[in-house]
TrEMBL record:
It comes from the Bacteria. The keyword Manganese does not apply. One of its GO terms (molecular function) is transmembrane transporter activity. The chain crosses the membrane at residues 6-27, 59-83, 95-115, 135-159, 188-211, 223-250, 257-278. It holds the Pfam family BPD_transp_2. Belongs to the binding-protein-dependent transport system permease family. LivHM subfamily. This is Branched-chain amino acid ABC transporter permease. GO terms for biological process: amino acid transport. Its main location: membrane. It is found in: Cell membrane. The keyword Electron transport does not apply. The lineage of its organism: Bacteria, Bacillati, Actinomycetota, Actinomycetes, Kitasatosporales.
């Protein structure tokens, strides 16, 4: 019983990490129709900025995480302003450009700090364990779950309750009409990209808690599962991405333990294939 509880809690923590990455990816695609292959690079920037602030600059973890998130958000804004915005009418070039950034950033990080993993500084408060139904579970798993839940709530409120959320949704449906009303849709799109980048950077910052280290290829590896989550949840559905993240995390953890190392990844691919056969548009197939 304690093994099942441990696998369930760690699966929820892994699923929460996937959601932190996939939520921004789903938000950007759903609202802006931009398939951002540089999303993993934003995660890596947030992870390394957090590591640098904590390990090199001497900031506490509670200051390093906001710092890393802000750096990743700034990188996302610059990416949208100077690379994505000029290519809105050229989706094929968009994909090629973001793929290039996604390859260049890990190479740059590797060139500066090397290919070896860097130990991630963890505060004493989050380095302990909690006892849950006989299982000893690392505290940081619950931190990831709490962060993912708060992010889901914040994104849903942004889309449904804020002026900019409504502007963006309207701009996606009919950009010319919204512009004719005197509303600058470009600013709203930049805000969406910033929010997506912030979510990715936060995932990188807190991903260090889960893995215990950061490395240049971490963002690329997590991006693969983020795309799986986005497709399973329904392209553009934040709520669907949350549900799919939990499913992927749990399946991966239980499959890795009960079937052997490496089969967890295969089980996720099988799950994706079965789901798409039953529901080709994913769990929801809508933005919510």
């Amino acid at each position: 019983m304690d093994t099942v509880v441990l696998l369930f809690c760690t699966g929820l923590g892994l699923g929460a990490l996937y959601f932190l990455v996939a939520s921004g990816l789903s938000l950007i695609f759903g609202l802006m129709d931009v398939l951002n292959f540089a999303h993993g690079a934003l995660l890596s920037i947030g992870a390394y900025a957090t590591w640098w602030a904590g390990a090199e600059a001497g900031l506490s973890f509670w200051l390093a995480v906001p710092f890393g998130t802000l750096v990743g958000t700034a990188a996302a804004v610059l990416l949208e302003l100077f690379l994505i915005r000029p290519l809105y009418s050229r989706p094929r070039d968009q994909i090629l450009a973001t793929v290039g950034v996604g390859l260049a950033v890990p190479a740059l990080l590797m060139g500066i700090w090397g290919a070896d993993s860097r130990p991630f500084p963890q505060p004493e408060l989050l380095s302990g364990t909690w006892h849950v139904l006989g299982a000893t579970v690392p505290v940081n798993r619950f931190v990831l779950v709490a962060a993912a839940a708060l992010l889901l709530l914040a994104l849903r409120l942004f889309l449904a309750r804020t002026r900019y959320g409504l502007i963006v949704r309207a701009g996606v449906e009919d950009r010319a009409m919204v512009t004719a009303l005197g509303i600058d849709v470009r600013k709203a799109f930049t805000l969406v990209f910033a929010l997506g980048g912030a979510a990715a950077a936060l995932g990188g910052a807190l991903g260090g808690l889960y893995f215990g280290s950061v490395n240049p290829g971490q963002g690329t590896g997590l991006l693969i599962f983020a795309f799986v989550v986005v497709v399973m949840g329904g392209m553009g559905s934040v709520t669907g991405a949350a549900v799919a993240s939990v499913g992927v995390g749990l399946v991966q953890q239980f499959a890795n333990y009960y079937t052997g190392a490496g089969l967890g990844d295969l089980s996720v691919v099988v799950l994706l294939a079965v789901l798409l056969l039953v529901r080709p548009r994913g769990l929801t197939g809508r933005l919510a």
